[in-house]
Structures are given as C-alpha cells and as structure tokens.
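Data deposition worksheet. Section B asks for the primary sequence of the deposited chain exactly as it was used as input, without tags or linkers unless they were present during the calculation. Section C holds the resulting structure in token form. Section D is free text for depositor observations; keep each observation to a single sentence. Incomplete worksheets are returned to the depositor.
Section A, Depositor: J.P.
Section B:
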Amino acid sequence: MPLTNTQVRYYDSNVLRLPKDKRETYNAQVNRLIAALREKLKEQDKISIKRVVKAGSFAKHTILRKTSEDSVDVDVVFYISGKKVDEESFSSLSEKIHEALIKLYPTKAVEDFKIQRKAATVTFVGTGLDVDIVPVIENPDKPNYGWQFDRFDGSKTETCAPCQVNFVKDRKNIDPDFRTLVRLAKRWRTKVECPLKSFHIELIMAHVLEVNGKEGSLEKRFRDFLLYIVESGLKEVITFAENGKVSAFTDPVVILDPVCDTNNVASRITEDERKEIVRLAEESWETAHFASVEDDFEIWKELFGRSFKVEDAA
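Section C:
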C-alpha cells in the first residue's frame, strides 16, 4: 500500500523540516552578523551596501534541519553600490569581507565560530550554522538585480536573489506541498549521494509540477520526479515562464536560471555525472515502487535513511 499524504507530511514536519525555534535562532544570529558586518565594511573600505538579502534554501524554506549528513547554511547577499563590475572580482570583494570579519571577531579562536577565508564563510560552532557572505555588484538600472562572481573561475553572472526566493514561493502558492516534495528529494539526494545540487532539485521539481500538475499522492509525485529524470535522461532543456529568449547551450545538462536566461545552473554537471544521476534515479524509482507495493517502511529507509518515520514511536 502506498504511503498516505498524512504519513509523508508527518515525516516532513517531524524529521525533514527546520523547526520554527531553530529558524528563529538562526535568523537572530544572521541578523546580528549582518548589522555588524555592514557597519564594519562601510567604516573600513567605504563600501556602500545598498541592501542585504537572505537567499538560498533557508530563505526559500526548502532547507533541511541539521543532521550528521545535512548541514544548515544561510546565503546572505550583500548588494554593493558604487562599484564597477569590470573593476572588481570575487577575490577583491571577498578579501575585504574577510578582513572585516577578522576585525569584527578578533577572538575567533575561542570556539564561538570559525572563518573560512576562500569562501567568506562564517561557521558558528555553537549552533552549527554556516553563513555564506555573497557579494553582488548591484545593477542600478534593474532593481533587485546584480552581478555575482563565480568563486572558481571568476566569471560574472546576472542574478536576482529576491526573484529566486519568489520563484519557489510562487510554486508553493500553486502547490502547497511543493516545498515538502523538494525536501523529500533533497534527503534522497543526500542518502544516495546523487550529484544534483539543491538548486537543481528545486528547478527540476518545478518543471515536473508544470508538466504533471499537482494531482496525485505525494508518494507518487516523488516517484514521478525520479521517473522524469529517468525518462528524460536530463537531456531536455528545462526552462520556465520567467525566462525570455533561450540561447543554445552545449552542456550535457541544461537547466535555465529563472532569473537569468544566459545562466545554465547545471553547466558544471559532466556527462558522466548525468549518467550517474539517471542511474541513481532509476534504481531509486524501482526501490520506491517496490516499497510502495510491499508496504514496507524499512525499504523506504534505503532512500531516506534510518531516520525515516511516519508516526510517533509507541
């Protein structure tokens, strides 16, 4: 017998979803960091911070609660004004942020947190929260948009953090269970060690919602997510209503960023990784189908881990 929607929602609420009290703790920690860092950057380098936006899975409410396998991180986007995108780089901006962090927290060795220089990341040891500081040169002619630098190759990509958050919010308004399905897929990704990133999962799930609609049980819709990967082989170009003119891409997997038509967010997925993702999805679909037919909760743990449960312990 398939899992009921009540059982899936129980698992999401009690095991996967970040609890309200933890979210409030993390929010307060991030807000204190933002306020202090914003002031220090202005004082230190005369950098004008136009606005600060929380982004990523935390802001989209698709983040998983912290476990030994799942970390909790918050992307904080600093929109910097008065800088020319052609005269800056990720290194130049992150270096200034790193220096400001060191001055803000000179006693970092006291185990309150640690600072990673390359990624401009603050890790708070007490709560286990990672905060990634993301510098973006604002586009003064396009509200909420700016240029983000790639940490690896230095390339620049147009982005809009609030737009990406709203993209998920819009899908949640269409389908109240959208975020639940995304969290299910993220837990599966971690358990089977699939190369897909969180953003990839959100966008593939959004595409499946667009194609299939929101009808059917949550269990079936999760299996349909896996089935889409298997049947398409991830060879279809995934686009959205938010996209404009679609350019030609030669990458093995093409998933367009809803806020930037020229940004293939899956460009780093290699052909070997594409094949591995499809293989894992096919094996997982077969496992999920068997678990459903056999009504065996233990088999579901092969996809979601030992923490999978659909009711309180007796």
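Section D:
The mean pLDDT is 89.
The longest strand covers residues 72-81.
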